[in-house]
Write a structure and sequence with these properties.
The complex is a heterotrimer of chains A (219), B (647) and C (267). With 219 residues, chain A is mostly helical. In chain A, 78% of the residues lie in helices and 0% in strands. In chain B, α3 runs parallel beside α12, α10 (369-375) runs antiparallel to α11 and α15 runs antiparallel to α16 (561-585). The longest helix of chain B is centred in the last third of the chain and has 25 residues, at 561-585. The chains are: A mainly alpha (219), B alpha/beta (647), C alpha+beta (267). The interface between A and C is large, with 45 and 51 residues.
Chain lengths: 219, 647, 267
C-alpha cells in the first residue's frame, strides 16, 4: 500500500524531495527557535525567558517533539551522506581540471562541509544547553549569558552560524527548485529572498552571543 | 572500367508504375497490393539499415504494424543520423495560407524543379502523402512554428511561389528526426525493434537471388555479425562525401549502397548531385567539412564580386560603381533568388574569372549592408541572428560590418540505387528509401523536399509496398548458417584484412582529400568530356595508390575509426568512377548536372529530351570493368517538359 | 580550394586522455603542435594531429564527431575542465582555435560519468540516453492515426517553450558538467517538451514516472541543484525545466495508478 511512497522517495527526485522537505521543516524549527530565543532580550534578568523555558518544558508532549526534531535532523543528515556517497560513486574517475561552468556557487559546493560544521555546532549547542548540568539548566537565561561570555564559545557560534547562513543560502532556493517552484518571473526574486532569509536568520542568532559577549566584556 | 560502356535496353527495369489517372494511381496501387494479416506480420523479420528520417520512420511504422524489426545505425545513437542537420523546412501541400497550393501544384513544381528527370507517378505520390506527414509529426509532438492563433505557420522557401514550408526554427530536420527517433525508441522499449548502434553494414546477403540479410561489423568490438531476415531496407543516405568536402556529416558514406550495387542492385543517375550556393568557404588545408548557411539569407543579402579581376581591396573599400551584383545583372527577374544550381554555377564562373574574394579567391560576397540600411540592424538580427552568429563563430568576422563570404558546396545527391514504384531495387527483397534511392527529385532537388521524401518513404510508402514482396514471393526460411552468409562475411573480413595489410605511407584521409579535389574540380559544378576523362584516369590511379600505399594503424579487433574511414574511402574510390562515367555518358545539361558543351549561347543549361529523357541505371560488372547501362524511359503525361528560365 | 597560408600558426601543447578500452586504465599523453591555424576548429586540430600520428604509425586519438555543425550531438570532450570547451552555448565542433593564445596548454578529457563508460580515448558510450527515451520519451501515436494537424491549436508561447526544450541534442554535456554526473537536465528537457504540448497530455504521468525510473537505473548521480548543467548546455536549455520535471514527477507519484508494467499501447 505504501509502495508508491517507497518508490517516490527511493527515486533520485524523491531523494532531493526528502532533503528539501526535511530541510524546510528544520528551517521552520529555526525560525521558531529564534523567536523563542529573542525573549532573552526582553528583560535584564531573563525572567521572561526562564518562564518560557519552564512552561515549555513542563508540557508532556515536549519529549515527543524533541524526538521528532532529532528524527528530522537525522533524516536530513543520513540522506545527505547517502546521496553524497552515491553522487561520488557516479563518477569514479575525477576530472584532472574542474574549474566549473559558472553554475555552482561556494554555497552549493560546500553543502556537506557547511552541514558538517552546523552538525558539530549543534552537538556543542546541545551539550551546553540541553544535556549540561541539570541545576544550571533551571536558570537557563543565566546559563546562556554565562556561556556566551566565553570567547571560544563566541567564536564557535559565529563559525557555526556562518556555516548555517551559507548552508541555507543554497538550501532554501534549492528546496524551492526541488519542489518545482520555478518561473522566470519570480525565481530571481526567490533566490535573493533565500539568501536574505539565510543571512537574517544567522544574524538573528548571532545577535545573542555577540550581545552577551559584548555586555559581559564591558561589565 | 574501360572507357566504353556496354549498353542494353530497359528490359530489366520494370518500374511497376500503376496505370490510370495520375491522381488515383497510389490509391489504386495500394488496393491492388496484397495484404498481410496482422497476426502473420510478426512472422516476418525486417532489417533496416540507417536511422535517418527514412530509416527511423520506416522501422517505427513497420514495428507498429507488427513486423519484427532489427535496426542498425553507424552512429552511437539513432538520433545522430545526418537528417538532423537539415535547417530549412519540409514542404506539404496543406494550402493553409490559402495561396493556391494543391497536391497538383506541389507535384508540378517538383517535377519541373527536378528538370524533368524524375518519375511522374512517384512525385505525385510524394505530393499526395505530404499532408499526412505533417499530421503525423504534429501528433508526435514536433514543435513546428506557430502563428499567434495557435495554428501552424508556413513560409515560402527556395523561390517557391506559395508558402508551403513547415519549419521548426532553423532546426526542422532535427525536430522531425527526433520525432521519428522517439517513435522508433518507443518500439525498442516495447521490444518490437532490436536496435544495434555503432554497426556498419558491409555486405548484402542474397539467397536464391533474394535479399535475405546483411553482414555488419560492430564498430566497438570489431566483431562481424550476420543478420538474416525476410527483407532488407537500406536507408543509408547520400554519397556527397565522395567530394570529401561537403555539407554532409563525416560518417556519411556510400558503402552500404555500393556493396548492394556490387551484389547486383542497379545504381541510377549518380551524376545528379546538388551543390548548395550559400556555404561558408574553405579556410585552409585543414578543412574537414563545409557548413551550410540557410538559403533564406538570399532574401535580404545581395551577392557581388569586384568588377575588376584580382581586386584585393577590402570589401568596404570597393565603391558601389566598382561592384558587380552579377545575379541581379544576369537574372533581372529572379535576381539573388535564382535556384540553387544557377546561383552555384554563377559563383564558380565569377571565381574562374579571378573575381573571387577572400584569401583563397574562392568566394563571393553576400552583403547585408543595404538590407541593414533599409530595415535596421535589429530587424536583420531578428531574422538571421543565429546564422550571423554561426558565421562569426566559424570565420571570426562580423557579418553586420563586413559582407559574408560564401561559396557553393556539395549538399545532396539525387542519384542513388534504382527503385521501382514499390521502392524495391533490382534485387528482390532489397528496398531503398530516402536519399539512398534515386526516385523523386530528378536532376535537382527543391528546397524543403528532402525531409518530405525521407518521411514519405518511411511513414507511408514502405508500410504499404513491403507486402508486395512479403506476400508476393515464397520466402523459404533462412538462417545465418546459410553458405551465402559465410561467403559474404568472409569477403567483408578479407577486404578489411587487405586494407590493414597494405601498411604503406599515406593516410586514407589524404587519399580521400585528393579524390575529393578531383571530383570537385572535374565533376563538380561544371563538367566537360575531357575533364571527366582526366577524372576517370585520376580516380583509377588513386584507387591503385590506395591499395598499394594506404596506411591504417591498429587492427580490426577493436574500436578503430581510421579503419572505418579507410573502408569507406575504398568504396568511394570505386563509386567515384561510376559517378564520373555517368556524368560523361549524359551528354546534356540538366539540374545539378551541367556539361559545359551543352549550354545555350548565354551560358544556360541545355537539356536534351530527345536523347536523355531517361534514368540511367548502371549494373555492376566488376571493379575496373565497364558497367552495363540500362535506361528507364521517363514519360511525362501531365507536366510537359519546358525550359526553365529565370531571366 | 587552394588554402590560404598562415604566416604563423599557434604553438599548442595538448594533454590528451588516452585509454585503450573500457576496462583499461587511462593516462594523459602530451603532444606539441606547431603552427596550428587559428581558423581551424578544435576537431580539425585533432584531425591534423591524428594525420601526423598515422604518418608515424602511431594510434590516432579516437573521438566522437559527425555533423561538425553543432546539431548532431556526437562530439563531446571536456576541454580544460569545460564540457564542449570554454565558449558558452557552443559545441566542441564549433569551437575554433582562434580562441587560444600562442603557447597555450590544453587538457582534453572524455565526458566522465560511470553511466557513460569510456569506449576508447575520448569516446564514451551514451546509449543510456536512448534507453531513457525508450522508456517514455515519446507520444504514443501510430503512423497513420494522426488527426488533421491544425485540429489542435497550440499557443505560440507554449510552442516556443516546447521548442526551447526540444532543442536538446542529447550530447550529454549536462552529465559531464554536473558535479554529481546527474542526467536531470536531459530528462527534464524531454519531459518538458512533451508536457508543454497538448499532444503529450494523455501520457503525462506515465512518462514522468517511466523516464525518471529509467534514468535512475542507469547509474547517474542525483541532482543537488548546482546548475552546472544549464551553464554547460550547448543549446541553452534552462534549469527551470528540472523544476518542471520535479513537479511532474511529484504530481505523477501522487495521482497515477499503479506503475506501468507493459508498454501502454496495445500490440
Amino acid at each position: 500500500m505504501m509502495a508508491w511512497l517507497q518508490k517516490l522517495f527511493g527515486s533520485s527526485i524523491g531523494k532531493k524531495l526528502w532533503m528539501a522537505l526535511t530541510g524546510l521543516l528544520l528551517l521552520g524549527f529555526l525560525v521558531v527557535h529564534l523567536a523563542e530565543n529573542l525573549l532573552l532580550f526582553s528583560d535584564r534578568d531573563g525572567a521572561a525567558f526562564d518562564g518560557y523555558v519552564h512552561t515549555l518544558t513542563s508540557f508532556a508532549w515536549i519529549p515527543l517533539a524533541e524526538l521528532v526534531l532529532a528524527g528530522l535532523f537525522l533524516a536530513h543528515i543520513v540522506q545527505a551522506i547517502r546521496v553524497s556517497l552515491q553522487n561520488r560513486a557516479a563518477r569514479s574517475t575525477p576530472y584532472a581540471l574542474n574549474p566549473g561552468h559558472g553554475g555552482r556557487t561556494l554555497a552549493s559546493k560546500s553543502m556537506l562541509v557547511t552541514g558538517s560544521i552546523v552538525l558539530l555546532f549543534l552537538i556543542l549547542h546541545l551539550a551546553q544547553f540541553r544535556f549540561g548540568d541539570a541545576a544550571a539548566r533551571e536558570r537557563m537565561a543565566a546559563l546562556v549569558r554565562g556561556e556566551f561570555e566565553k570567547p571560544l564559545v563566541l567564536a564557535a557560534y559565529l563559525l557555526g552560524l556562518m556555516a548555517l547562513a551559507i548552508h541555507l543560502s543554497h538550501g532554501i532556493q534549492s528546496a524551492l527548485q526541488t519542489l518545482g517552484l520555478s518561473h522566470p518571473r519570480y525565481t530571481p526574486l526567490l533566490q535573493k529572498l533565500s539568501v536574505l532569509i539565510a543571512v537574517l536568520l544567522a544574524l538573528g542568532f548571532a545577535s545573542m552571543p555577540v550581545y552577551f559577549f559584548a555586555s559581559g566584556a564591558s561589565r | 572500367m574501360s572507357d566504353t560502356t556496354s549498353k542494353s535496353g530497359g528490359s530489366r527495369l520494370d518500374s511497376k508504375v500503376p496505370s490510370g489517372p495520375m491522381a488515383e494511381r497510389w490509391t489504386r496501387h495500394k488496393f491492388d497490393l496484397k495484404l498481410i494479416n496482422p497476426a502473420n506480420r510478426r512472422k516476418f523479420h525486417l532489417i533496416v539499415v540507417g536511422t535517418g528520417l527514412a530509416g527511423s520512420s520506416a522501422a517505427a511504422s513497420l514495428a507498429e504494424m507488427g513486423y519484427r524489426v532489427t535496426v542498425l545505425c553507424i552512429q552511437d545513437s539513432p538520433r545522430r543520423a545526418h537528417s538532423i542537420a537539415a535547417q530549412g523546412g519540409i514542404n506539404a501541400a496543406k494550402n493553409y495560407p490559402n495561396d493556391g497550393d494543391s497536391v497538383h501544384r506541389l507535384f508540378y513544381d517538383t517535377v519541373k524543379g527536378g528538370d524533368f528527370r524524375a518519375r511522374e507517378s512517384n512525385v505525385h505520390r510524394l505530393a499526395e502523402v505530404s499532408t499526412r506527414i505533417i499530421d503525423q509529426c504534429v501528433a508526435q509532438g514536433v514543435p513546428f512554428a506557430r502563428e499567434y492563433g495557435g495554428l501552424l505557420a508556413n513560409r515560402s522557401f527556395g523561390g517557391a511561389q506559395v508558402s508551403r514550408t513547415f519549419y521548426a526554427r532553423g532546426q526542422t530536420g532535427q525536430q522531425l528526426l527526433l520525432g521519428a527517433y522517439s517513435a522508433l525508441e518507443r518500439q525498442v522499449g516495447a521490444g518490437r525493434v532490436k536496435l544495434l548502434a555503432r554497426r556498419e553494414m558491409l555486405d548484402l546477403v542474397l539467397v536464391d537471388g533474394i535479399a535475405r540479410g546483411i553482414v555488419a561489423r560492430n564498430l566497438v568490438t570489431g566483431e562481424y555479425e550476420r543478420h538474416a531476415g525476410d527483407a532488407v531496407l537500406m536507408c543509408t543516405g547520400g554519397y556527397g562525401n565522395v567530394f570529401y568536402l561537403s555539407t554532409n556529416a563525416k560518417a556519411c558514406n556510400v558503402t552500404a549502397t555500393w556493396r548492394a550495387h556490387k551484389r547486383g542492385a542497379f545504381f541510377a543517375n549518380p551524376c545528379f548531385t546538388q551543390i548548395h550556393p550559400t556555404c561558408i568557404p574553405v579556410s585552409g588545408d585543414h578543412q574537414s567539412k563545409l557548413t551550410l548557411m540557410s538559403e533564406s539569407l538570399r532574401n535580404d543579402g545581395r551577392v557581388w564580386v569586384p568588377e575588376r579581376s584580382g581586386d584585393k581591396r577590402a570589401p568596404n573599400e570597393i565603391p558601389e560603381n566598382e561592384r558587380d551584383y552579377y545575379l541581379e545583372r544576369l537574372y533581372p527577374s529572379f535576381g539573388n533568388l535564382v535556384p540553387r544550381d544557377v546561383a552555384s554555377r554563377s559563383a564558380k564562373e565569377q571565381c574562374d574569372l579571378k573575381k573571387g574574394v577572400g584569401e583563397s579567391g574562392m568566394a563571393v560576397y553576400l552583403d547585408f549592408r543595404d538590407a541593414i540600411a533599409r530595415d535596421s540592424e535589429d530587424a536583420i538580427r531578428a531574422r538571421y541572428g543565429n546564422l550571423f552568429q554561426m558565421y562569426e563563430r566559424i570565420t571570426g568576422e562580423d557579418p553586420y560590418r563586413v559582407p559574408m563570404r560564401i561559396y557553393p558546396a556539395v549538399h545532396y545527391t539525387m542519384g542513388g540505387l534504382w527503385v521501382d514504384y514499390n521502392l524495391e531495387s533490382t534485387l528482390p527483397g532489397l528496398f531503398v528509401l530516402g536519399e539512398a534511392n534515386f526516385s523523386d527529385h530528378g536532376a535537382n532537388r527543391l528546397g524543403a523536399s528532402a525531409l518530405m521524401q525521407g518521411l514519405a518513404d518511411g511513414y507511408f510508402v514502405i508500410p504499404a509496398t513491403i507486402a508486395s514482396h512479403l506476400a508476393g514471393r515464397k520466402l523459404a526460411p533462412v538462417t545465418t548458417d546459410h553458405a551465402a552468409f559465410a561467403e559474404a562475411e568472409s569477403s567483408a573480413r578479407e577486404r578489411i584484412a587487405r586494407i590493414l595489410s597494405v601498411q604503406g605511407k599515406r593516410s586514407a584521409d589524404s587519399i580521400h582529400r585528393e579524390l575529393g579535389l578531383t571530383m570537385w574540380n572535374q565533376c563538380g559544378m561544371a563538367r566537360d568530356k575531357a575533364g571527366l576523362g582526366q577524372a576517370l584516369e585520376k580516380i583509377r590511379a588513386l584507387r591503385e595508390e590506395f591499395w598499394e600505399n594506404v596506411r591504417v594503424p591498429g587492427d580490426s579487433k577493436n574500436f578503430n575509426q581510421t579503419l572505418e574511414h579507410a573502408g569507406r574511402v575504398a568504396d568511394f574510390l570505386e563509386f567515384a568512377e561510376l559517378l564520373a562515367l555517368d556524368a560523361r555518358e549524359r551528354e546534356e545539361s540538366c539540374g545539378g548536372h551541367f556539361r559545359t558543351e551543352h549550354q545555350t549561347p548565354d551560358g544556360e543549361a541545355r537539356r536534351d529530351d530527345e536523347h536523355f529523357s531517361h534514368a540511367s541505371a548502371w549494373e555492376f560488372k566488376g571493379v575496373g570493368e565497364a558497367p552495363a547501362l540500362h535506361k528507364e524511359p521517363l514519360n511525362f503525361e501531365i507536366v510537359h517538359p519546358s525550359t526553365r528560365s529565370y531571366k | 580550394m587552394s588554402a590560404p597560408t598562415h604566416a604563423k600558426g599557434l604553438r599548442i601543447t595538448l594533454r590528451v586522455w588516452r585509454q585503450s578500452g573500457p576496462s583499461a586504465s587511462g593516462a594523459f599523453e602530451t603532444h606539441a603542435l606547431e603552427s596550428v591555424s587559428p581558423d581551424m576548429s578544435f576537431l580539425e586540430m585533432l584531425d591534423v594531429l591524428n594525420e601526423s600520428l598515422v604518418g608515424t604509425g602511431k594510434s590516432p586519438i579516437s573521438f566522437d564527431h559527425d555533423c561538425r555543425e553543432g546539431i548532431c550531438g556526437a562530439c563531446s570532450l571536456v576541454i580544460d575542465g569545460h564540457a564542449h570547451g570554454p565558449d558558452a552555448e557552443t559545441t566542441t565542433c564549433q569551437l575554433h582555435m582562434r580562441h587560444y593564445r600562442d603557447g597555450a596548454t590544453i587538457t582534453v578529457e572524455p565526458f566522465r560519468a560511470n553511466a557513460f563508460p569510456v569506449v576508447r580515448d575520448l569516446v564514451v558510450d551514451r546509449s543510456a540516453f536512448d534507453r531513457i527515451i525508450a522508456a517514455g520519451g515519446f507520444i504514443s501515436v501510430n503512423t497513420g492515426s494522426a488527426p488533421e494537424a491544425n485540429s489542435l491549436p497550440v499557443g505560440k508561447p507554449l510552442a516556443d517553450e516546447a521548442m526551447d526544450n526540444a532543442a536538446c541534442i542529447g550530447c550529454g554535456a549536462c552529465v559531464a558538467a554536473c558535479p554529481n554526473a546527474s542526467a536531470m537536465l536531459f530528462v527534464a528537457a524531454k519531459i518538458s517538451h512533451l508536457k508543454l504540448l497538448p499532444q503529450g497530455a494523455p501520457e503525462r504521468e506515465s512518462r514522468a514516472l517511466a523516464m525518471v525510473e529509467a534514468m535512475d537505473k542507469e547509474g547517474f548521480g542525483n541532482c543537488t541543484n548546482h546548475y552546472e548543467c544549464g551553464a554547460a548546455c550547448p543549446k541553452g536549455i534552462p534549469v527551470s525545466s528540472i523544476a518542471r520535471m520535479n513537479r511532474e514527477f511529484l504530481r505523477a507519484s501522487l495521482k497515477s495508478s499503479p506503475p506501468r508494467g507493459a508498454a501502454p499501447e496495445g500490440a
